[in-house]
Every structure is written in C-alpha cells, then in structure tokens.
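Appendix B, record 7
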Amino acid sequence: MKQGLLSPFASPVFRSLWLASVASNFGTMMQSVGVTWLMTSLTSSPPLIAMVPFAALSPVLLFGLLGGVLADTIDRRTWLICSQLWMTAAALAMGLIASAHAATPFSLLALTFALGTGNALNIPAWQSLIQDIVPIEHVPAAVSLNSMSFNTARMVGPVCGGILVGLAGPPVVFFFNAASFLGTVLVLIFWRPEKTQRQKHKILSAFGSGIHYVLKAHHLRGPLARVGMLCFFSSSAIALLPIIARDRMELDATGFGLLMGSLGFGALVGGAAVPAFRRILSPSAIVGWGTALSAAALAGLAVAPSLGIGILALLFYGFAWISSMVNLNVSVQTSVPQKLRGRAMA
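Structure tokens (predicted):
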C-alpha cells in the first residue's frame, strides 16, 4: 500500500486540500454548464457559443507561464490564496449580473475570461505543490487522485448543474461556484508549510530562464509535444459540444449535463486505473494507446446521432484522454528541478 493509489492520503494536508478541491471542482463544473447554457439563451451564434470554452481556456496559454514564474519565485501558499479569491470574485460577479438579468454575450465572455485567468495563474502553483506535500514516490498516485477529484466533479457536477439550471436558472450555479473556492482558501490559510528558499530574480529573468530550460531539456520535448497534440485536436469537439447537444441531438440543459457527466465518468475511471496500468505497461505505451483510443472516440462523437451514442463516445474519450494526460503530467513533474517546477508545469 506504500505506493498504492491512496498512499498520498497519509498526509493530512494533502487529504484536506484534496477534499477542498473536490468541492471547488464541483462548483466549476456546475458553472461551466450554467454559463454555456445561458449563452445559448442569449444568442444562437455557434462562434459566440464556442467562444465560452475559448474564453475559459485561452488564459492558460496567455498567462500560464506567468503563473509558473510566480509559483517558483514567491510563496506558493500565498499565491494560491490570492488566485482562489480572484476566482471567487469573478464567479460572484457573474452570479450578480445574471440574477439582475443584465447578462450579455460580452459580459459572460469577459467574466469567463477573468475566471479563466485566475485558473491559469493557479494551475502551475497547484500542480507544483504536490511534491511539497507528499514524497516523490507518491507523486504518480497524487496526480491520479487530483485527476479523480476533477473528474468526479466533471461526472456529477454537469448533471447537477443542468438540473439546477433547469429548475432555478444559471445564477444559482454561479453563486455555488463562488462559495466553493472558500474551502480551499480556508485550508491554505491554516496550513503552515516549511519555509523554502525562493529564487531572487526579476520576473523577466525568470521568464527567460524557464523558457531556456524547457527548450534545452530534451527529455521534456516528447511529453510537451504529446500534450499539445492531445489538447489541440480535442478542443474543437469539446467547444462545440453544446451545439451538438442542442441542434443535432435536440437536448435540453439536463441532457447536455449528462453528456458532460459521461466525459467525467470516463476520466474518473481512467484516472483510477492509471496506477494499475503503470505496473504492466510503460508510460509511453499508455500514452500511445490512450491517444489512439481518444482519436477513435472523437470520431464516434463526430457522427453520434443520439444521446446514447454520444455518452458512449465521451465515456471512452474521457477514459483514454486522462490516462494519457496523467502519465505526461507525472513525466514532467518528476524530471525537473524543484526551482523550475512551476515554469515547467506551466
């Protein structure tokens, strides 16, 4: 059990943060349904609807490296508290605007972008924190548990979000999401980690050293290229899923939530299976098979005429995608120096 899936739970800090992250991820997944469905009620334009996930995720490209630099140069705990509070404010603002019936496509995109910016600045510090909490031999299990936290929320959150949106409207899920960040904030406030020495150089210098390291680190080129390929070719399908649900399958918000939930369930099973896979297959083989199955599942989704077939395709896609991504994440986390971990993860 020393290196089993549950071994990171031996750390009380990891256990508390993991439970807080479940609630936070649950709120985020509920909000994703609410904002997407609210956008479909404000406009019938496919480009505008597809801009919702773009606004949520483009900050990772724009500000992810900045988040990595800050994770490496200032106290990660303090930075995580600040980013969580920023996301709380963005979700609360969205709830207030929606409840006042003042939401427009532009305001939804702007606040989604603000929430995504907080997430982009949060991710590198959050992922880099793992080795500050658990021993390195437990990192693969910790990464799998974090993915399971996210994908448990992805499985249940959209379904609950779709039901709540149908019953009470989008503002309810926005307010729930704002409250869900506060659990993580409280855990971080009461956690007193050991003080670690941070690099004392300017932001631009940290940018340059991080980029220089990644460009020169041959062992990172394969994992980074594979991550780029997986994300680039799958993003269009996920961005257009609301239109597939509404126009081709003629679903309501609850049906769309079921589609999103099936993606999360597949990913949850895939994340739980990773430690067993790593005992019988090399990480490279897992990524190869996962990539091939992801492609086949997305091809199935492209022609899926009904909810049942769409659910099946997304189950396989979630399983394959997370199996690959967990192994790529571990490859990067365990092969870079501690002082550069945040920038490498970014």
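Remarks on this record: The chain has a mean pLDDT of 80. Residues 90 and 115 are 6 Å apart (CA to CA).
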